[in-house]
């Protein structure tokens, strides 16, 4: 009887704490692959990149994690600004399953967000990355220093606090600090911290306590459709919303008319309730 993925990886580089990075190919080698993955790889090998992307998308929609990593990679090739908003749901799908390479991509991807960089989400996912593999991401001291830097500065106006004047922290994320109500409201409304903060609360409640458990089940080959914590999290993040709820938004963001080009980077983080603007698939994957 074949050993589980978890058993196969105990004594190899996947769990080698001296390794600084992992290639997408190596991480994918330990995961089940759909036929769409094989089709996509063959198409990519003969430079049929658009058809390969379509195959990886189909595979992602069946829950194939290697397809998710390759599909998001395809969407980033050649500076595809018109597709940048389509990467987030699949980066999140891979990240909540504990794929180290995809988590690393997600942290970097958030730098593209407008109108503000969601640093609290970057810190969250870096911490998850570290907890799943201690050699990746910032170490505990670096995270502490980074958090301290953010906490000592009013995020909108960049004023530093002092011994005489301590700033108020956001009561939701406890990451950002503000010199006053005006700056807090500016970040909350104009900087989309409302959506960022709500999504962080969703992750802290429905992902953080179960992250290692979900990752363990995925790596040993459990059926993801039967992992209740994973499916609950997908629902809470809005990943499994019916497509008809955001189909008009997809059409709007996909239109590059001469008179108006949508600012797709404003749809990278979250809606006001913390859910994603665009889901992945309504199917249970």
TrEMBL record:
Q: Which UniProt keywords apply?
A: Metal-binding, Zinc, Zinc-finger
**Tell me, what's a Pfam family for it?**
zf-MYND
Asked whether the keyword ATP-binding is assigned, the reply is no
This protein's superkingdom?
A: Eukaryota
GO molecular-function terms, A-Z: zinc ion binding
The UniProt entry, under InterPro entries, shows: Znf_MYND (IPR002893)
The residue ranges of the MYND-type domain are 154-197
> What is this protein's name?
MYND-type domain-containing protein
**Source organism per UniProt:** Fragilariopsis cylindrus CCMP1102
């Amino acid at each position: 009887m074949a050993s589980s993925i978890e058993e196969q990886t105990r004594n190899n580089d996947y769990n080698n704490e001296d390794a600084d990075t992992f290639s997408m190919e190596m991480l994918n080698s330990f995961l089940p692959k759909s036929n769409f993955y094989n089709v996509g790889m063959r198409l990519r090998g003969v430079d049929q990149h658009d058809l390969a992307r379509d195959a990886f998308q189909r595979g992602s929609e069946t829950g194939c994690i290697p397809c998710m990593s390759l599909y998001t990679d395809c969407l980033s090739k050649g500076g595809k600004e018109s597709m940048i908003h389509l990467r987030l749901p699949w980066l999140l799908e891979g990240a909540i399953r504990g794929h180290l390479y995809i988590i690393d991509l997600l942290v970097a991807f958030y730098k593209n967000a407008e109108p503000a960089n969601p640093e609290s989400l970057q810190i969250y996912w870096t911490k998850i990355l570290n907890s799943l593999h201690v050699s990746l991401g910032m170490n505990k001291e670096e995270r502490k220093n980074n958090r301290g830097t953010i906490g000592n500065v009013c995020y909108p106006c960049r004023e530093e606090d002092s011994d005489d004047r301590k700033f108020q922290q956001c009561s939701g994320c406890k990451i950002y600090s503000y010199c006053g109500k005006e700056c807090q409201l500016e970040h909350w409304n104009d900087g989309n911290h409302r959506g960022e903060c709500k999504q962080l609360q969703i992750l802290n409640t429905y992902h953080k306590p179960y992250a290692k458990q979900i990752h363990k089940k995925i790596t040993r080959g459990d059926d993801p459709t039967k992992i209740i914590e994973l499916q609950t999290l997908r629902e809470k993040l809005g990943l499994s919303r019916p497509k008809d709820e955001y189909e008009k938004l997809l059409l709007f963001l996909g239109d590059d008319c001469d008179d108006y080009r949508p600012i797709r980077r404003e749809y990278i983080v979250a809606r006001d309730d913390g859910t994603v603007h665009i889901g992945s698939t309504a199917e249970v994957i």
